[in-house]
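Figure 3 (text version): structure tokens given as input.
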């Protein structure tokens, strides 16, 4: 979760490693790329269209829950939910039998849409569903309304992005790297690697003026696709990433740009 910080140390005076074209994050301090922000947010203003910071993708809400396979948009019951992109509804109903998760009635009323390039979006805990299986939908089309059906402790939309086998509970991708950033915001994709080239578990602090974020890398049973930690909804600016491993502190200064993805590789030695 985010917390207020009084300030952070000034950015070092030396410039970051100059990036080549094309940029290689394994040799540069960071690379800024277009990313793959192809999905519209499923909740539209004036409703709350921000990802809930206390239970991000792959997080455990400070150890109180299982690792999260999506993100949450906390809103009142009845708030409209919209298609994140054009596609075909492949499921709309109650998940009384576990198909998209490991447990019966986990998602409650759920809508699943197939998009191009073997991508899927999942919308869970709905109170009302306005679409049916087989229906073609357009981006922004109303799918239903926020609720708290299934395993939900309060009214919210649980939103997932999956690729490949949609019925594989572990085929999820981090939605914060697929949802279009808001104006003035960008995102971070971080790969923490060991010297052998494998992904390394770590806890990270991400700081900018006036705000701190604390996130962990993905759990071992989350197969990394292009990163093993990520953070969206970041205002454009200068950020410091730090982690400690076996008593050694690793630090990296990076820039975040509006509408862009900052890619960072950190190698633990």
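Below: residues designed for each position.
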């Amino acid at each position: 979760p985010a917390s207020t910080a009084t300030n952070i140390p000034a950015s070092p005076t030396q410039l970051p490693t100059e990036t080549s074209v094309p940029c290689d994050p394994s040799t540069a301090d960071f690379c800024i790329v277009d990313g793959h922000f192809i999905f519209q947010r499923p909740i539209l203003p004036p409703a709350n269209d921000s990802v809930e910071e206390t239970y991000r993708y792959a997080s455990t809400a400070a150890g109180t829950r299982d690792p999260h396979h999506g993100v949450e948009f906390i809103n009142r019951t009845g708030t409209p939910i919209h298609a994140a992109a054009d596609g075909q509804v492949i499921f709309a109903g109650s998940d009384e039998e576990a198909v998209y998760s490991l447990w019966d009635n986990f998602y409650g009323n759920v809508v699943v849409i197939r998009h191009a390039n073997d991508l899927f979006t999942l919308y869970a805990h709905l109170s009302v569903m306005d679409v049916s299986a087989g229906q073609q939908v357009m981006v922004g089309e109303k799918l239903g309304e926020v609720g708290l059906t299934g395993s939900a402790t309060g009214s919210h939309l649980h939103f997932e992005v999956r690729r490949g086998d949609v019925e594989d509970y572990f085929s999820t991708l981090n939605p914060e790297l697929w949802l279009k950033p808001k104006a003035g915001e960008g995102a971070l994709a971080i790969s923490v690697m060991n010297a052998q080239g494998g992904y390394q578990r770590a806890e990270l602090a991400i700081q900018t003026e006036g705000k701190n974020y604390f996130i962990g890398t993905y759990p071992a049973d989350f197969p990394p696709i292009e990163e093993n930690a990520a953070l969206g909804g970041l205002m454009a600016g200068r950020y410091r990433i730090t982690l400690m491993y076996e008593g050694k502190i690793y630090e990296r200064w990076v820039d975040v740009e509006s509408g862009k993805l900052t890619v960072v590789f950190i190698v633990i030695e």
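The chain is about 0% helix and 40% strand.
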